[in-house]
Amino acid sequence: MTRAPRIAVGGFMLESNSHAPVATRAEFESVVLLSGDALLADLRAATPRSPRTITGFTRAMDEAGAWMPLPTLLAVVGASGSCEQGFFEWCVDELCARLRAALPLDGVFLSQHGAADAVGDADPDGTVFRRVREVVGPDVPVVATLDLHANMSEAMVRYSDVLVSYRTNPHVDMWERGQDCARHLRAMLRGLRTHAAYRKLPLAPPSVTQSTAPGTPYADIIRFGQERVRDGVIDVSVMSGFTSGDTPKNGLSVVVTADDRDKAERVAREVATYAWSQRERFVPRLMTLADATARAVAVGRDTRVGSLLFADVADNPGGGGRGNTTWILEAFHKAGVQGCVVGPFFDAALAAEAHRLGKGARFEAIFNRDETQEFSKRFAAPATVAALGNGEFVGRRGIGKGRLLRLGPSALIDLGGVSVVVGSNRHQASDPGYFEMLGVDLARVRSLVVKSRGHFRAAFDEFFPDARILEVDVPGLTTPVLARVPWKRIPRPIYPLDLDTTWAPA
Q1: Which of 77, 152, 153, 323 is positioned for an S-S bond with 126, CB 3.0–4.6 A?
Q2: Is 318 found in the same domain as 207?
């Protein structure tokens, strides 16, 4: 190709917890909803709001030679419920309209999550790929990144050319996977033709068992797959799936892309068979709330022992949790825990009240006064407004590194022994900045309670090594105890919900 290739960029990223409130346009606007020139400007910004998948792709394309980026639509929210159907349809229509306006195209890059659900569409990601293919035709390469928690469908594979999922959890390789897509797209522009093979397993690993730290089952499966990326095998992606999605697409999936169909099929079968052999290793081990409270009381009293991080894994905003359950907060406060900070806690009304009252004000903090979600019970305590902020900062570690993050009007509320970071936008504790922006010195905190399932590990490891991280068993929308979830659409039988589940490679 002698001229600069014309490459469309965009995407739709939503991880849908089917039991959470519906994801609305307003929620996307609070995170990322950009199109056209505004999207292109963000991709070129020093601290973009866009995910590192698409910025990594853009940088790699820049470094590989001349190209013409043609921005379409990028809609991103971390995790929520099923997407409002009308808004989802608007997103797809807008993306495709901009694609048509940009024709002719030499390629398309999409930054997708892969675990979206919509009120009237059980496979929004498949719909995006299908609609894009209808616009660009069968011969234009379509490459995309996927979250490691994607719930895969045949349509997603059929209407794309290369799908590349993250390999780390916490997701610290999003930039690199975007760069992989740029490399694969450049190769396709030079004549490479790809073939994909897809396998779905009746295996739904609980969320806290999906770490890719060395020695974990998921890390071993991903390593097994990466060892086979050679001799014409271009990519091996293993998606554990988003268990809380409760869709017909649930289950661990393997997608292999190669320059030959037989190679792809053989490797997909090998990786899927190995993954199934590891199923009994996906067993969560959680600490009771009583034991966690006792540990927090002890570490608050004795500063000679190492501080502790308590993960509220059942209320993970990164998995659709509301970020506002109070089981741990109330138990720690009642027990008189000292030197503890909790957050970020999602309560826009409480944050607004703190801003109205001003720093130093004493008042009765009422958590969840306007909340109706079943797990978000009300809790009140005498409090002092310790700090106020606008909630904006640039991420410095983990999944949000280098991105502009926005918690919205925020406050540090001191309950006496226990302080709470309260924000107006729902985010998981994926960066130290959520606490540091309000003056919290994490090196001096005795107990840190984070609303997160696992991404905190890449953010707070400078303060809390794995040996001082405790995952607490309390109720919530993202509980890893699968027997407690009111399943409606998940395919059955599926392991470990159904321990007698069988599977054999086709």
Answers
A1: 153
A2: no
Q: Could you tell me if 294 and 197 lie in one domain?
A: no
Considering the domain architecture, whether residues 291 and 394 belong to the same structural domain is answered as yes
Range of the domain at 64: 6-281
CB 171 within 8 A of CB 53: no
- C-alpha 62/C-alpha 114 separation (Å) is 26
What pLDDT does 506 receive?
Answer: 77
Query: What strand order describes the sheet that includes 6-13?
Result: 32-35, 68-76, 6-13, 107-111, 142-146, 162-165
Given 262, 281, 300, which residue is the final one in a domain? Answer: 281
Give strand ranges (E) for 439-499. 447-450, 469-473
Residue type for position 384: T
pLDDT digits (tens, 9 = 90+) for 86-105: 999 999 999 999 999 999 99
pLDDT tens for 132-152 read 999 999 999 999 999 999 999
**Quick check: is 167 in a domain?**
yes
Same domain, 71 and 114: yes
Of the candidates 380, 295, 283, 277, the residue with the CA atom closest to the CA atom of residue 335: 295
- Same domain? For 250 and 297 the reply is no
Cβ atoms of 196 and 257 within 8 Å: the answer is yes
Asked if residue 503 is part of any domain, the answer here is: no
Structure tokens at 449: 């309670």
Residue 422 lies in a domain: yes
- Looking at the fold, whether 236 and 364 belong to one and the same domain comes out as no
**Three-class DSSP labels, 366-414:** EECCCCCCCCCCCEEEEEEEEEEECCEEECCCHHHCCCEEECCCEEEEE
Which contacts of 220-225 are long-range, i.e. CB under 8 A and separated by 24 or more positions? 220/278, 221/271, 221/274, 221/275, 221/278, 222/167, 224/271, 224/274, 224/275, 225/254, 225/256, 225/267, 225/271
| 3-class state of residue 238 by DSSP | strand
Residue at 491 is within a domain = no
Phi, psi angles (nearest 5°) of residue 411: -150, 145
What tokens does 78 get?
């971390």
Is there a contact between 405 and 432 (Cβ–Cβ < 8 Å)? Answer: no
pLDDT tens digits, 249-282:
999 999 999 999 999 999 999 999 999 999 999 9
Number of domains into which the chain is organized: 2
* DSSP assigned state of 203: B
Q: Of 281, 309, 335, which one is at a domain's C-terminal end?
A: 281
Cβ contact 17:25 at 8 Å? no
**Residue 495 pLDDT greater than 90, yes or no:** yes
324 shares its domain with 373: yes
pLDDT digits (tens, 9 = 90+) for 448-493: 999 999 999 999 999 999 999 999 999 999 999 999 999 999 999 9
| pTM of the entire predicted model | 0.91
Cα separation, 81 vs 256, in Å, equals 29
pLDDT attached to residue 375: 94
Give burial (CB, 10 Å; 0-12/13-18/19+) of 466.
exposed
